[in-house]
Amino acid sequence: MAFVVNNLRPLCKLGALTVHQPAFGMGGVRVLACVHRGMASFKKIDLSGVFPPLPTPFNQDETINYEHLRNNVTKWNEIGFKGYVVQGSNGEYTYLSDTERVELVRTVKQAAAPGKLIIAGSGCESTQATIDMTCKMAEAGADVVMVITPFYFKGRMTSQAFKTHYEKVASASPVPVILYSVPANTGVDLPADVVVQLSQHPNIIGIKDSAGDVTKFGSMVQHTQASGFQVLAGSASFMLGTYTVGAVGCVAALANTLGKEVCQLHNLFKEGKMEEAMKLQHRLIAPNSAVTRKFGVPGLKVAMDWFGYYGGPTRLPLLPLSPEEVESMKADFQNNGFL
């Protein structure tokens, strides 16, 4: 990969990567280039394991309660998580200011046990904003960034648009990049062939895919494994299925409440105990669906309160669950032996 550096001044410098801003513009658009030493070494970062996507704890007035976050992380540190995802969809990142997003990453980094990998969601709608946020997340302590697909102009989010966006972000990022596709929220899907092409970029190390298409997972693994690219399941509901076709880890909302059980499923598969793994996977499907597809972040926060964590309220316009919804969700946990 060739990077053209000409007439540049430093924009941000973090670790092995120096990002520069040109002293000139092109059509009023800021153009970025980067110089990197040892970028290929990022492919060696091991993403195998379970990552909870941390919810953002709010007070009743919707301000962030950082003390509750630190307390939650202290409890999660006792579980065998590979690390934490901060500012994914479950973090309500779309409702937060840039300053809040960065401070949450900094707080989790400080509270996390040594060795925990911090993955920060740095995706924004524009490429430039994503690059800026990525630099800020790295400064706050993120080891890796996870970049959601831009989606507002859905009709123009073509394969080439995605490819250009991710290549520019990855080339300017001080830390490794994970692609993030969540069609249920964005209405757009990152095609497998685009993922394969992007896997060749030395600073793109994996993907979190929340769509649940096991065929797509298998295809992505088959065509990217030679480059060291890693595939992560985006839900505990289809975790075992994706593992059987080569996924190495999982980012699961359910891990915020049933972290030990989700990690147990990971370990059972690694140990080849497939019958036990299948039984546990079956039990996790309904509770996971309850805190994702059925009731979303408000449901997840209620479940966190049940299991000794601080869930608390969501930010408007997300509304709390009704009493009937709470009882329905409780049944999903009780019927599978978790309450």
TrEMBL record:
The keyword Lyase applies. The keyword rRNA-binding does not apply. It catalyses: (4S)-4-hydroxy-2-oxoglutarate = glyoxylate + pyruvate; (4R)-4-hydroxy-2-oxoglutarate = glyoxylate + pyruvate. Pyruvate binds at V251. The active site is at Y180 (proton donor/acceptor), K208 (schiff-base intermediate with substrate). Pfam families: DHDPS. Its EC number is 4.1.3.16. One of its GO terms (biological process) is glyoxylate catabolic process. InterPro entries: Aldolase_TIM (IPR013785), DapA-like (IPR002220), Schiff_base-form_aldolases_AS (IPR020625). It comes from the Eukaryota. One of its GO terms (cellular component) is mitochondrion. Transmembrane segments: none annotated. GO terms for molecular function: (R,S)-4-hydroxy-2-oxoglutarate aldolase activity; 4-hydroxy-tetrahydrodipicolinate synthase activity. Keywords: Lyase, Schiff base. Homotetramer. Catalyzes the final step in the metabolic pathway of hydroxyproline. Belongs to the DapA family. This is 4-hydroxy-2-oxoglutarate aldolase, mitochondrial. It comes from Branchiostoma belcheri (Amphioxus). The lineage of its organism: Eukaryota, Metazoa, Chordata, Cephalochordata, Leptocardii.
